[in-house]
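Case study B.
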Amino acid sequence: MCLGIPAKVTHFESPQEGKVDYLGTKVRVNFSLLEDVKIGDWVIVHAGFAITKLDEEDAQETLSLLREIAKAQEG
Amino acid sequence: MARMKELRDKNITHALLQEIKKKAGASSRRVRVMEVCGTHTMTIHRYGLKTPLERAGVEMVSGPGCPVCITPNEVHEACLDLLTEKENFILASFGDMTRVPTRKGSLQTAVPALRSTVKIVYSPEESLALARSNPDKEVVFFGVGFETTIPSIALTVRKALEENLPNYSVLSALWLIPPALRAILQAGETDISGFLYPGHVSAIIGTKPYQFVADEFRVPGAIAGFEPNDILLGISAILDQLREGRPKVYLEYGRAVTPSGNSLARAVMEEIMEPKDAFWRGLGRIPRSGLKLRNAYAAYDAQSKHKLRIEEGSGDLPGCRCGEILRGLITPPQCPLYLEKCSPDSPFGPCMVSFEGACYIYHKYGRQE
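Model:
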């Protein structure tokens, strides 16, 4: 039930409501639980509400950590 | 951000498992990690990580992180009473709650009272829409969830008050994860070397509410994302903490979780709800582990509005060992009912119903031992 899906904000119908794109499907989402959401932001959607924003910089850190681990293993 | 393929990359998974094996091999004691969240259980089994982790020296144990499962049967039965005894009601519920078996059947099998019905909703807001579009009916939302879901339910109740909707209320079964972890640690029934903390609960509450686990109980932990390599990174961090003897709350899922969590969501929760002692399936009564609506919102509390009687512990099904599974005491195949009297087609207990229930997940991914 705590399943959350990462999706990209595509447009707003009001400051609190809008749509996100999830794997090509447009889904209506309530943004009331977040501050300063913009079109193009990535969010986690749970039960119709966006509950957190995804941070690109942190994602890149995780990815580079994973790439390092793979490289160390090869080496 | 859409395709972070490294998070599922099999070569990286292999490399991480090698690293985990080295680290776990260096540990003098058996390493048992409890994955608190049912969605983590799902990833571990879907990507076949359980057996390789065991071979690497890490036993994964499922915990209480399935809200459908830990909601005791007497609460489900109160919903059934509403549906079968009250006319002109709409009971709005998340899908898997409708299949939980009780002594009185399930919401799916029960025969509703005259002009009453069950509607499956995906979001709390949909239950509010039902109340708006059916002014001649009483709508009760079976609001179940952890911190991930609670703010959405709280906002929905606030909206009901703002719109002054007279025909709406919530039967709430709202559960807080940190007090449950304290209860598990205090009971000391099972050896836990570390916790894999739930990612989306943490997106709301942040890292601080778990700090007591490290400080008071000296148990390591990591907040992890839901991809296979997220989970392995989390486990690797737990092993580091074990080796160094420095338990902490490691944040692997930093792309979705900030150390302070979502303060706006928490403010909404706190505005509309207040803590109460709550009775969990398997874990029993835990101080301040649940939430109820504050007095200002009492008109939207279905339990008092519709005079529902809920007697703690009264709904237990003899033979069902779901409670022990939620405490990490046994694995699903150790229950005599598993795949005998209890299967996804004909579940005996809630852990076989929910997509996040350990029994359902074990069955789905074919684990017998």
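The mean pLDDT of chain A is 91. The remaining cases will be described in the next quarterly update.
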